[in-house]
């Protein structure tokens, strides 16, 4: 009797993973997608969910049931690959708004300068990708929500190991590079072992395990796709260029997953479940699939434009209050919410720290920033 119950539980877990995979492949089409089983969800999931719900004051289950627009914060951490096992940073941050009409991906630059609410004095000025490092996923969600004054209904936290596994499971992808660059994931620069060479306008690339003897390849495996999306220093558009390459990879993964069965074998699902944490339940996922199915055909992507700022030798991105208000207006419009002022200029209480005059000027200028 117990064995039969155990078998049924295993089947339910596999069904949950399969359902979630199909939904996201059809609806969002991004590689940080929401494969989850309850065993892989953070032990504090229910606490995180209640905190998020308390923060935005929305009955998310009711919104989904009625087919109202919802928001999901996708966080990609720099762990789970390249032998990294620490808490990591959320180097990829996308706020997704989903309605019956469309899906919109808004990329938040990882270097966006903020103060962490409640930790202003201890941490001073920080990059938004480090909020997770200092705190946890719930605090990261609430910081982004407060910064933009936009409710965040759900989150999904995916590490880099997930990207490699997805691309490898697909048998590789072809991506046309928007620029020529050389990159080693070992050094994060254009030298070292495991060296890749990508060429503008071409899907072919070269790779040398020893950094010297190159071979030509016509399709990216998981490691190559990860290298392609991670490079930042050689891109003249910095993080904006990197998010563009991430979206190119997303598009190709979407094209290669028109048949979800390619990803629905038990071995793959078991391997990727450890790479994801989310507060989206199976029941909610089923509702999303029903209510927002048509939105999969209309996916839009954009990135927040910011200005550069050097503080103590560290490069940050600054979003002026004027431009931040535009982002808030856009997101609240997507969610069919009333107009409201954007959130605190630095997310936390800027009065608790010393804000440099140059930063103050950038924060409150009405001029459009340059990319």
Automatic annotation (TrEMBL):
Domain Cell envelope-related transcriptional attenuator: 89-258
Gene3D superfamilies: LCP protein
Alphabetic keyword roster: Membrane, Transmembrane, Transmembrane helix
Transmembrane segments: 15-34
One Pfam assignment: LytR_cpsA_psr
InterPro entries: LytR/CpsA/Psr_CW_biosynth, LytR_CpsA_psr
Domain of life, per lineage: Bacteria
Keyword Transmembrane helix: yes
Assigned protein family: Belongs to the LytR/CpsA/Psr (LCP) family.
Record's protein name: Transcriptional regulator
Source organism (scientific name): Paucilactobacillus suebicus DSM 5007 = KCTC 3549
